[in-house]
Design goal:
By secondary structure, the protein is α/β, with parallel strands linked by helices. 24% of the residues lie in helices and 50% in strands. Strands 1, 2, 3, 4, 5, 6, 7 and 8 form an 8-stranded parallel beta sheet that branches.
């Protein structure tokens, strides 16, 4: 009888905590961080609506698909193509960021400091 009770308790606990663990893992995926660091890197990354992206270095060519929460570019001569984001921040010099759309119907909030940085929308 004790063995059956122990099995029943285990099954109840697994059913209770299993979905919570899966939900926590889903939350982590929604708030993923994408970091690209270096020089002369070419990369494509898929964002989720909670993804924060940081690109640091020189002469990197990065394409971001999906919806990113925010994109931060620092360094020089980086080229970044963004499908969708809520915010773009660019520091350094001679960086080029193009974006297709913001989240929903809003344009992304854009912050640009440094020299010769370009942030433009493409259709």
């Amino acid at each position: 009888m004790n063995k059956k009770l122990g099995t029943a308790v285990f099954m109840m606990m697994a059913c209770t905590f299993g979905p919570m663990t899966a939900a926590a893992q889903d939350d982590e995926a929604e708030t993923a961080s994408i970091d690209v660091t270096g020089s002369n890197e070419t990369a494509t990354h898929e964002c989720t609506p909670g993804s924060t992206v940081e690109i640091t270095g020189m002469s990197n060519n990065v394409t971001l698909t999906g919806e990113c929460k925010s994109v931060t570019v620092s360094g020089s001569s980086n080229t970044v193509k963004v499908e969708a984001t809520s915010a773009i921040s660019v520091t350094g010099m001679s960086n080029t960021v193009t974006w297709k759309r913001g989240h929903g119907k809003s344009k992304p909030k854009i912050s640009r400091t440094g020299m010769s940085n370009k942030v433009t929308q493409v259709k």
